[in-house]
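From the thread on structure requests for the teaching lab: each student submitted one protein with a one-line request. Submission from student K.M.:

"Model Deacetylase sirtuin-type domain-containing protein from Lipomyces starkeyi NRRL Y-11557, tokens only."
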Amino acid sequence: MLRVPYNLIIAASPLVLPPKATTLGAAISAAADFLDPATGTTALLTGAGVSVESGIPDYRGPSGTYTLNRNHRPIFYTEFVDHHTIRKRYWARSFLGWEAVRQAKPNRVHKYVGDLINGGWLRSLVTQNVDSLHSAYVKDVTEIHGTLSSTVCLTCGTHYDRSELQIELARLNPSWADLLQQELDRLSERRIADPIKSFRLNPDGDLELPARISYDRFNYPTCPSCASNGTAKSTSNGAWSEENIDIIVPHSKRKVKDVGVLKPDVVFFGESVDDHVKKVAEQKLKMADKILVVASSLATYSAFRLIKENKTNGKRIGIVNVGPVRGEHELLVNGDLRVSFIAGDVLGGVVDIMNQQRSPLAYARR
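Reply posted by the TA:
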């Protein structure tokens, strides 16, 4: 049986480093000392908690998906690529959830990260997030788990814009499109300023629906490129056909048994991070003197491995996260940073200190 990777249930309280950083003011001061360029360059690794203020939930925070629903189980890569029925379920829930992802706006944390990079207090950014919100303020973002804004064909490797797929999903599933529109109209009538908060959205962009919902009649499209060159077949209305099952293309992008399947361009549980992306992320962290982790429990091994390797190589590690973090009691030592406060509060305070140091008055005092 497949298991959800590393569910954090830790009795020990989060560390506090330095020990005096028990108040927000002390935590901000400690974080500023850690990030100070005079002590070396810092690379940043962010997690799902960064986007909570944008209306996208995290996994293990106070209102996270795993916290509120202990029985939540994500779709695994092998399930998606091997089972037509699983893909129906995923794309149906994604169809309803995409509107929430599309409407999400960058929040103060994304802006503060951009400020710290532009101010020279952060050297580079690697993120586990798949919402692409960091790109509003940072040009060079390495998304180790991909992005929901794009889809990819598992047979030919062609990429498509997710918004274009949404239009096709609506055409193929008019009753589901009506359901989505009714929900949006209802929210509009109630004058809810931020409708995405009313959805029970998961961090990966799919909507949590009741178990009784049937997905049997939901349709999703065939890869247009594979359909046009005859590699894959479509039904009369353009939906992916079951005739594509168990047809292996010898020179396909990935060795999967069903041809013409579109997948969100994100790393599913049980799937490996792209080798090139992995190398870029490793290089960014390697080139820095220190690593700061923000709003991540490091529960996924792809992220934990990066931090563990850099700690083994003698680098200082800083963590700003509310709640426990994987391996923190083994990884962190005196000289490292560990504060358990909201990321926006801490980074905002650091940006204020950075701006004060850059002001003409600050230079006049030197």
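TA comment: Residues 60-103+148-266 form one domain. Residues 1-6, 63-69, 192-199, 361-366 have pLDDT under 50 and may be disordered.
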